[in-house]
Amino acid sequence: MDRHLRPCVLAVPLLVVSSLFSRGAAPRAETADVCVYGATPGGILAAVSVRREGRSVVVVEPSRWVGGMLGAGLKPMQDCPNYAATGGLARELLRTLGSPEWDGDRLKKGALGRMSPDEVRRDFERLLETHGIPVIFEHRIAACDKRGPAIGAAVFDRAPFDALGCPVAEPEARGALRVAAGVFIDASYEGDLMARAGVSWRVGRESSAEFGEGAAGVQPPMEEAPIDPFVVPGDPESGLLKWVENDHGKAFGAADGYTQAYNYRYYTTDDPAHRIPLTPPENYDPRDFELVGRYVEFLVRTIPDEGELFGRLGRIFPGWLNSGEWNYHRESLFSMAPVGISHLYAAGDDAAKARVWKQHQDYLRGLHAFMGADPRVPEAFRRRIAATGLDGRFHPDTGGWPHQLYIRVARRLVGRYTITAHDVYNRVRIDDPIGLAQYGIDTYPARRIWFRRDGAVWVGIEGKMFVGGSRGPTDVPYPIPYRAITPREDECANLLVPVCFSASHLGYASARMEPVFMICGESAGIAAVRAIGEGVAVQRIDPAAFRRALERAGQKLAWDGPVPEKPRAGAGVAAGPLTFSSLLEHCDDDADQLVARSEWISGKPGWEWLFPVIDTDKDGRISAAEYDAFQAYKVEHPDWARKRVPHDAATP
Fold first, then answer.
1. CA 10/CA 194 separation, integer angstroms
2. How far, in whole angstroms, is CA 369 from its chain's centroid?
3. What whole-number distance in Å separates Cα of residue 226 and Cα of residue 609?
4. Closest CA to 139 of 293, 30, 261
């Protein structure tokens, strides 16, 4: 079995630096107090904080753009549900990046949809220019030259991204850049410098037992449909269609190496003045989307209302319209990005990363071609899709494609502290905070599998959840500890990791938001300067002096705002008597005495998987009879939750 299909905690062997230099060509040499890898928002704030403290810094960026996901479609305030919990430079920038429209401390209605990622990127460029911070573009980490437990220098290959904004498998020049620095900050989404430095890291999903997280590990399938996954319907020996796989057979709650889906946050238009045609990839074969066609057949057969049907088809392509840009739609068996390949990127080498990134682009191009031409798609919807292209007003230098794939999680540091669901639930006391985080446990699907139930064959996605909604299960921010961004000292004494920090799959699923990366990046820059000034390892800086420096920078280190007297209903704790009447109070938004899927998801975050279990007639609504039957089943089977999925002390 591929080792990346198992949960793993690894230390990558140090590469031999001398073998990577281009033969006969001396590498470009740079020296700075601090080297930041990745011009992501977290990396940029790390660099700015170093310069504010009077130290020299250089940023090395693999692509030719700055701003990471905030310059590629994701809006700065989209994942900041509590502006009052944000401190430091991040708090200042969230008000200005992309020129959002504010009304006091609240964004005006529709403000996010009127923002441009290109303007956000230009704002980051101006910030770097203002502070005189050099950025070396188109170089990716190749190796680290370590001297004992410290990095002496990092070596980079020159590897320009392609014309459509994707990384390439082979570099243009190996060992083209060498940067010596006192402290290194890995602010990349992948943790590649961290890995080259030889520190321990993990990918995949931990078991529910490893950290005592009830919702961890393998989950039951959701968004199921009774469609045949075999090349020849009814014949397993004919093989599986593309974009579905065999279940690995692990029990619910078990660990595995999978991780949540990635996708583009992209813009489309049907206006000929701005439309860039979405053309099929060179290797396009409509048979690759046969399973999508069978799902379309199922939707057409079971949804008689055209408006509802077109809404469901739109979840496949173009997806979910978030704030002007399209995102993955989790309430669909298929959406606008592939499922089941992100783990190949998470711990992959440069060639694997280039391949998986391009697969996401080719999948989206192929899906557009399929949904715009396959006769199983209603003609009116086909015409709508065929007229849709990329919006050339955004990302014009890459043909309308965002320059950054939304890599929600890749490697995670195994540091001196691991953020888990217990942190998200405010169950842990932290003495070394560097900032606050607040968000629900938010994961996208990890796998698409087929299975048998009651003699029928089904296909479903597995691994998605949204526990607590955007404000989190307790509606109270929680601290990020300094220990979570520092490796063990014996592994590396001068490295800080403010993006791929130390966290479990569930802990990272909450903390992985760009405002948090920005906060951690600024704090990492301040810590780097402290370590250089004190002449000690980053793990040994004076904690009291560091805290004072964070406070001077305006970082929010403890929550002093309101704390709810009791958790919100549906946030992962008991929510009153288990009666249908109490369920209606929490979930029946339209007062029709039924609970629709969307109402269940809104009122019972984290329990999305349970809806199809209770909805036995599969009409998309839970009735009193169905809910009462489920409660009776629970009485007869007190171990029902362990049979289906362990969960964090929640009562549906």
1. 11
2. 26
3. 16
4. 30
Alpha-helical runs (H) found in 387-492: 421-424
Q: What is the Cα–Cα distance from 158 to 140, expressed in whole angstroms? A: 7
Residue 633 has pLDDT above 60, yes or no: yes
Closest CA to 187 of 633, 539, 523, 433: 523
Element (H, E) at 621: strand 621-622
Asked if residues 460 and 222 have their Cβ atoms less than 8 Å apart, the reply is yes
Burial class (CB in 10 A: 0-12, 13-18, 19+), 452: exposed
User: In this structure, are residues 258 and 217 in contact, taking their beta carbons and an 8 Å threshold?
Assistant: no
Would you put residue 249 in left (φ > 0), alpha (ψ -120 to 50) or beta?
Answer: left
Question: Which value, in Å, is the radius of gyration of the alpha carbons in the chain?
Answer: 25
Strand partners, 60: 37, 136
Q: Residue 609 — very low, low, confident or very high, per pLDDT cuts 50/70/90?
A: confident
Residue with tokens 């080719």: 362
Q: What is the pLDDT of residues 249-276, one digit of tens each?
A: 999 999 999 999 999 999 999 999 999 9
**Cα–Cα distance, 91 to 82 (Å, whole number):** 11
* Residues 201/193, Cβ–Cβ less than 8 Å: no
DSSP β-ladder status, 8-11 and 28-37: unpaired
Q: Let me know: does 190 contact 410? Beta carbons within 8 Å.
A: yes
CB-based contacts of 358: which residues, under 8 Å, 6+ apart? 166
Report the distance separating Cα 613 and Cα 249, nearest Å: 20
> Where are any strands of DSSP class E within 189-274?
200-203, 222-225, 230-232, 235-240, 245-246, 268-269
Question: For residue 151, what are its two tokens?
Answer: 């990095």
Q: Which of 274, 385, 347, 251 is nearest to 9 (CA)?
A: 347
Number of C-beta neighbours around residue 125 at 10 A: 17
Amino acid occupying residue 279: T
Q: What is the mean pLDDT of residues 365-375?
A: 98
Segment among 97-111, 280-294, 601-615, 619-633 with least mean pLDDT: 601-615
- In angstroms, the Cα distances linking 98 to 37, 250, 583, 642 are 24, 45, 41, 47
- Please answer whether residues 517 and 84 qualify as being in contact, where contact means their C-beta atoms are separated by less than 8 angstroms: no
Cα–Cα distance, 586 to 562 (Å, whole number):
23
Cβ proximity of 359 and 291 under 8 Å: no
pLDDT tens figures, 17-26: 333 444 456 8
DSSP-assigned letter for residue 212? T
CA–CA gap between residue 485 and residue 507 (Å, rounded): 14
Token pair 């399973």: residue: 291
Consecutive H or E run containing 365: helix 350-371
Q: Is 624 helix (H, G, I), strand (E, B) or coil?
A: helix
Rounded alpha-carbon distances, angstroms, from residue 628 to 144, 283, 605, 615:
61, 52, 20, 11
Residue 235 CB neighbour total at 10 angstroms: 10
CB 528 within 8 A of CB 58: no
Token code pair at residue 372: 């715009």
Give long-range contacts, CB 8 A cutoff, 24+ apart: 452-456: 456/226
Whether the CB-CB separation of 16 and 143 falls below 8 Å is answered with yes
| Mean local confidence (pLDDT), 139-162 | 97
Token pair listed for 210: 């490893």
Q: SS3 breakdown of the chain: % helix, strand, coil, rounded to 5?
A: 30, 20, 50
